What we know:
- By secondary structure, this protein is α/β, with parallel strands linked by helices.
- It has three domains: 8-207, 3-Layer(aba) Sandwich (Rossmann fold), CATH 3.40.50; 218-375, Rossmann fold; 449-548, 2-Layer Sandwich (Alpha-Beta Plaits).
- The structure holds adenosine monophosphate.
Amino acid sequence: xxxxxxxxxxxxxxxxxxxxxxxxxxxxxxxxxxxxxxxxxxxxxxxxxxxxxxxxxxxxxxxxxxxxxxxxxxxxxxxxxxxxxxxxxxxxxxxxxxxxxxxxxxxxxxxxxxxxxxxxxxxxxxxxxxxxxxxxxxxxxxxxxxxxxxxxxxxxxxxxxxxxxxxxxxxxxxxxxxxxxxxxxxxxxxxxxxxxxxxxxxxxxxxxxxxxxxxxxxxxxxxxxxxxxxxxxxxxxxxxxxxxxxxxxxxxxxxxxxxxxxxxxxxxxxxxxxxxxxxxxxxxxxxxxxxxxxxxxxxxxxxxxxxxxxxxxxxxxxxxxxxxxxxxxxxxxxxxxxxxxxxxxxxxxxxxxxxxxxxxxxxxxxxxxxxxxxxxxxxxxxxxxxxxxxxxxxxxxxxxxxxxxxxxxxxxxxxxxxxxxxxxxxxxxxxxxxxxxxxxxxxxxxxxxxxxxxxxxxxxxxxxxxxxxxxxxxxxxxxxxxxxxxxxxxxxxxxxxxxxxxxxxxxxxxxxxxxxxxxxxxxxxxxxxxxxxxxxxxxxxxxxxxxxxxxxxxxxxxxxxxxxxxxxxxxxxxxxxxxxxxxxxxxxxxxxx
Length: 593
Ligand code: AMP
């Protein structure tokens, strides 16, 4: 089927976007039976429903395919649950009706209301907004709905869930009797049916939920991990897929904030979306994703509701969704409009049963697989790197001149290796996962409870991944500076600019004293700052606070090592075997995520 019988301006707008065929929901609202009628449509986001209602109300907006020049009052109103969704709808309708010359006003919470009032006064044909803000404008007389010919409720079920019933009723009560009412909702619970009954007349019911849940486009995967390894699993998934855009779902704002910080620290270009962000922060985050400065978004369910990012190909349920419906809502961010997507559930061992039940009730077939290993990631990286470096490029004269200069000083192989190395440096490191077997998990558990390390103190050293920090040279340095042996060093956590490590409390003072003495020596290596760290690495601090309030570690009052030189990049490290000798601070934050 093609788009036929459309007014030329709409047909051209669709063709320019490359939309040759209507999606099922678009075909359904364009059938002759639906013309001019009230509609109740159950269709998921991603089904093309925005364009669907955009086309469905064309008859109310255009006369003989033209804008109605003398109507100064809005002819159509679209109400959506969130600011993001409203703005998305507004963007879609802007290109759809751009050629017809229709103006659109967007009215959403968090934006400047006086600017919105001005736009409303300028005579837009379509108004798109969130319930609360629209009601404000209505009550202040800025929004006149008396000439309205069509009203669309988008994601009506979400709006009722979010407590907008009163706002909706007040707005609908202010619209003229003869208007069309189009109700779009992914689900049809009783309150939606009641709303439809009250505000619609002889509505045509269109249901496409069964057909286009998108199972065909979304591949579901699930993987069990030990609860302490969830973040490592996320890192490896991102590195394995290298999706153009990926979204990671967490259950709470706190967890969004934490995962966002962790990923940023590990070198991913990432933004966060949760209720704690202002409207302008959210807009900036979405814009960064749209123009691909950033490729990863960590979000809560609510903040990501209705978001449409065409390049989104990976959804990770970092924390398992609360029910089958949330699972589908989240996953439905990908696999949209005929594109393929992957949705991955990271499942802590004890919750596997629950997830299996949830998948069954949603009739989703997921394959249970292991978290991608560093080796599998390296194989993928090699393939991607080869493809990228061998892709045809138009070099300009300056590139060639520099290439000739390089060739005079280095062999072709060295130059190629340097190029590969430079690319590798931009990629965050994959994580070693504990093997997915009960034995390996038990062994790891035992390691975490090493004798002598029941009560430990955190210290920090002012070098991190940016300075090529690795246990193989940090361990000998700590032994030399602190007069201890390797066996007296517990967990080591390497972050971007610093590294934390544990020392048994019984030897912490002795270790501190030795640090003070050796910190006065001459070489750069001996002057690198090593000091007690009251809070420990970030995740530890958080876990401890959650568990017991101030823990024993926080009660330990470390003695400051006053003589240590100020923090700074670690300069004088000798080049060791396997150490690439990268300059401190030389590793730039990658553009990719
Ligand atoms: P929606 O369900 O409105 O969130 O739309 C999902 C995505 O599908 C949006 O990016 C639309 O621009 C896109 N889309 C809408 N209609 C079509 C179509 N007929 N062909 C291809 N893509 C479409």
